[in-house]
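Researcher: Re-running this chain for the archive, since the previous output was lost when a drive failed. Same request as before.
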Amino acid sequence: MIPVITWDEGSAPAFDPRKYVSVETFDKLTKYLECENVMHPRNAQRVIEQAISLLKLRADNPDLRLTASFEVEMGLRACVLHTDEYARLCVRLGGFVHYEPPISDDRDEDDVQRTIARMRAAGLPVHDDVWTQGGSSCFRGDHARSACDDV
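Model: Regenerated structure tokens:
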């Protein structure tokens, strides 16, 4: 079961990543993650939300060292690969957000934890389950590929 994040009234993060892209773009990005990374649809949505939130933090703090989890990194790559949508997203975030993929899939857990803390401090939503090192339960089995064959 996917945990549902709820906030007390008035305490929800002010940033809503879904407001920075159209519904069509959000659906396109999540479908890409579902099909290319064999990811459950709800988890793909959460990963894209986190990628957009991390891009917001990068836009506001271009000199900070920020490290995404493996899953959030997949969301960042999905955003960047859809260049028209990414360009529009960057405009909404305040300017072009540079992206440099990690050289390897190894991530320093302390760097990831600092990034999570910075996101929270900035009032950005954090879905802890997609920030776990070593992966979470985001991935589905090979049987999921057939659902994406017509995309």
